[in-house]
GNAT family N-acetyltransferase
Amino acid sequence: MKSPFALALATPADAPRLTQFVNAAYRGDTARQGWTTEADLLDGQRIDEEGMLEMLARPGAAILLCQNESGELLGSFHAQAKGELLYLSMLAVNPTGQAQGVGKFLLNAAEDYGRRYGCTTSKMTVISVRTELIAYYERRGYHLTGATEPFPTDPRFGIPKQPLVLLVLEKPL
């Protein structure tokens, strides 16, 4: 069966619309329309355009785009290959289109991206209180490593409403 989704790679020209898309998916009232949101945990933006361009410019990095047949952006996911490690971050799905397979499509595409670069392990961090999101990734083969990382203090990535910590999840590729 043909997938209703098309995969594309973001370019610097996509940064303005991608920044707006990611911020709407993560924060504010728009984000509350989906099952996974950070709107109650953080104020401010998820990323700015400068940060998006920095992510796109990193060696081994790509922002994968999921689009429908008419080219509408449904989701995005940052993947960065560093040696044998694939680091995934910033999965964003249009809040009104969640639970339609976009996240799974992007996760599979990101893992394939890592394999093409020779990565053997996929790694991500998730805010510790996002239990529904951790469970989502566990259903897709990721496991908590027991490691933690501090939440970034740069307000360019949001302003926490409570103390937050990131949990590290990994999956063999």
User: Anything to note?
Assistant: Residues 6-122 form a domain with the Aminopeptidase fold (CATH 3.40.630.30). The longest helix spans residues 102-116. The mean pLDDT is 90.
